[in-house]
Amino acid sequence: MDIKKYIPNFVTLGNLLCGTIAIILAVRGHFYATAIFVGIGIVLDFLDGFLARLLQVQGELGKQLDSLADLVTSGVVPGIVMMQFMVHSTYYREFGFSSWDSALDIGLGMEDFLSIELLGLLLTLFAGYRLAKFNIDTRQSDSFIGLPTPAMNLFVVSLPMIAGYTESKFILDIIHNQYFLIAVTLILSFLMVSELPLFSLKFKSYAFKDNVLKYIFLFLSVVLLIVLKFLAIPVVIILYILLSVFNNLKATNK
Fold it and tell me: What is the pTM of this model?
């Protein structure tokens, strides 16, 4: 038995396990731990494809399994996080908690969820649609059409992290604003299924002249992470979209 062809699939199952654990943590409102398991899952998601190409064992089973794992880690989890974050933000704003952490300490039952918070689950629905579309779209072998689900996921799970670590009242007021959270949900949902071309971070070669945009993005991302810490995550996602738009306009004008 050739064991190497199963290695990428085991890594993908690791992603699925991380996503399942993250769901449990997100339902319980443990956002920091959720973000850790999401981060591990996304790394495994990148690693399984890398290993499949390295070992030359790409196959249809791995492709389908990868999408199923992504639906859990980068589909179900951000939907639950957004829904829970909306509820906890309401408690934080309206019921006089002394800190964001104290708002996280309360246990919420189903009676605490209002219909408006269920809008967060749009992220799960659109992620599922995007992943199904991705599997049959032959145009996305070297680049993306629409925002990848891991990028959307990172944007969403970073919001509670920012809330927990920032001392800026201005930033806190923004990310705890229900209309802001609804707008983020709708925009991210639209971007996932849009026809917007976005560059991929896959490298066919490492020559600078062939990957100028990618190296610029990676350099700016590192600088932003050092300077802004958790706040850098949504900024990096926005930067990724803006650089892709710039790249598209540049290609159109040639």
Answer: 0.88
